[in-house]
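Morning, I've got a small favour to ask if you have a moment. Here's the protein in full, and shout if anything looks odd to you:
***
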Amino acid sequence: MGRSAPSPPEGFGISRPSKRTSSGAGPTLEFVSGSVEETQAFGERLGRLLGAGDVVALSGELGSGKTTLIQGIARGSGRDPQTVKSPTFVLQREYPGDLPLVHVDGYRLAGAEEAAWLDLDLMFAPHKITVIEWAERFAGLLPEDVLEAHLSHLSTNRRRITLQATGPRSMELVRQLSNQTTSAEGGSASPARHVDPGPGRAGGSS
């Protein structure tokens, strides 16, 4: 086996645009977490920015931290993160409030054909925040403008979180989160930077 590339330091770093066919692909943002607490703190900062109609689509292998990130989002939106459990068997949970939070888990779905039988209008209601684990099971069914979050393992405790904007609203979320977290991290993290694909680059490979 060849030598693996060194892991990046905790914090934000520049990342390349994902391979997308959508012309709405926007900036990406990468964060490397060194612990459960850091993943939740990152989610909390994101949760404070989310508003009615926002959709966060999470993907990543088992144990990569999707539910942990959502617990942070819940805290940022004013909820107790300990009440947030992955709805693997019931598929969907809704946490009430002035701005309801819908938590969907597509792990048990075979794919988009099964997902299409769910009440998508209720799931993506414009007066709610929706977060989806295993969002790849909903391919072709998600709204046009969602914030994609891909999580991957780097080591036992380290996770890479890559955010991909797909439209104007999610682009704004990436920019706000980049600026906010740069200030929050201070000197302990790399400067936050995002990459804007620009015209003609949205579907290009990195």
Notes: DSSP finds five helices and eight strands in the chain. Helices lie at 36-49, 66-76, 112-115, 120-123, 168-185. The two ends are 25 Å apart (CA to CA). Confidence is low (pLDDT under 50) at residues 1-9, 12-24, 186-193, 197-206.
